[in-house]
Every structure is written in C-alpha cells, then in structure tokens.
Amino acid sequence: MDMSGRLGGYQRGGGARRDVDEFGRERRSRPHNRKPYERPSRGRGGRGGHGGNQGSGSMVDESNDLESRLSSLIIKVGDKNAPTLQNNLEALSVVLEKDFSKHEITVLRTFRQCVLELPWKAPVYSTLAGLLNAKNSDTGAKVITLMHEVLRMSLAAGQWGSVKVLMRFFALQVETKTISAATLLEMIDAFLQPAAGKMTAQGSCFMFIAMSTLLWAGRALRENGPDELEARLLAVEQFVQAYTEANAGNTLTTVLHDAPPKGVNILENLLATMRAVADGGWKIDAICAPHAMFASELAQATQHELPALEMP
User: Fold this and answer.
1) Cα–Cα dist 132/95, whole Å
2) Which residues share a beta bridge with 20?
3) What is the pTM of this model?
C-alpha cells in the first residue's frame, strides 16, 4: 500500500514536489520557528497585530530586535581570530557609533558584561572601545567612564577577580590611545602604594593585581614612560623579596580563586614571568594585538582623564 501521503515530507509522483505533513496536508510557513530578528513585527492590540496601536507596537518590536542584534554582534566579535577580524571590528564600530545615541544603555550594558565575562577577548574589546573613541570622543568617554565606575564598585565590594580583569582592560587602553600612560600609572600606583610594607593577604592581593596589569601594559609603558616603568618594577621586586622572606610557603589561595596549590609562591612565579617578558621586549605572542591594525586611526584619538581610585 502506498503510504507516501501518510509519512510526511515531500509527496512522490509527478509534478512539483510539495512539502506535506503526516496527513498529506501542505505545511504552512511558521513564523515562530524563525530567529527573533526574522519574525514579523506585531502590534500591541492582540495576536497578529489586530486592534490597538499597531504602529507603536511595531516600532517597539523593531527597536527590541535591533538592540538584540547589537548585543549579539558585540558578544560574538572576535570569537574567531580570523583574517576578517579587522573588517569586523571596523564595521561594528561604525554601527555602534551610529546607533549609540538611540541604544546607549543596551550597548554599554553589553560591553560591560563582555569585558567582565569574556576576559580572554580583552584585546578585542579594548580595540573596539578605542575605535569608538576615535570616531566620537563623547562615546569613548562614556564607555571608559562606565568601566571605571565598574572598577570602583568592584574594589569597594572586594571582587578581586573582576578588579584584575578591569585593570587588564585599562592597561590595553594605553595602546589604543584612549587613556595616557600617566593615567594608567596613577591607577597602578593606587595598588602599589597601599601594598608597600604590608605583608598581609590584602597587600599581596594588591601587588598581584599591579603586577598582572604591568604585564599587560609593559610594552606601551616602555614606549611612553620607560623610566616610570622601571621605577614600578623596582618597587615590585622589593615587595616580592620581602614578602617571600616573611611568608615562606604561603600563597594567595585565600584571596584569589585561581591561585596555584598551597606551597607555591605565586608572586615569585609572576615576577619571574615579568622578567622573562621584559627581556623579550614585553612581547607576548599568545596575546593578539588587533589595535595594531588601526594604528593610524587610533593615533588621532582623544585621551581621557580618570578620577583617582579609592582603595578599600
């Protein structure tokens, strides 16, 4: 018995092939199976957009769809270190700068979440922030001001993992010309000065964050302030030596969740890494540098001053 009309799919036989269900009926297009930004807009008055203010509802839906797409673009950019990264960053910065005034809250919220939750893409988001700043200094100021406020709040809450990631972001902003080397050094000093002479968990935590920041900012600081960089490195070495002598075998396990097993001095290990990277000209091959592809554009950007950090 021929069951072709009962199995669903395409009916057999001559003529045009039709997409049918298990009862032999033609399938209808189902808008609810489409992606959010492919669905037709509906008014507020009811199903299918009947009744009510259809125009207003359609505008709201379109705005929501656009915000969803903007967020998706920000999240996905740089997922693959492909040859198209330069074009993707340039195109995204143009779109965001154009729509920023209409969707500022969405863009800033998504940007903040990406920096905090996707730290391995810090070079990508720092470059994106730099491009936005180069295209419109007011937009760049809003991005940097927001991230500085998030840093301040993270410090007050003792969220050291977030503090470390945010300081890494600001370290890369020197490369994009969004902040000056002097501004970053002031931020680093905010961690170095309270740590000096304090062989405590908090002091070692501050030092760890300062050292991590210097590791990411070393190349830019060597070009823009080599003497200042050397002075901070000397302060780091003095602290690590004193800390090692006073806390043999202790680690930062109780302060930072990613510290190595007890018995390994993370500050000593990090200092050794810093020395090796410094000897190599502060170049780290494992870290991509997309900002270099926009050197001429970023060179014309406005640099922003930031308020002094208040340490807990």
Assistant:
1) 10
2) 9, 26
3) 0.76
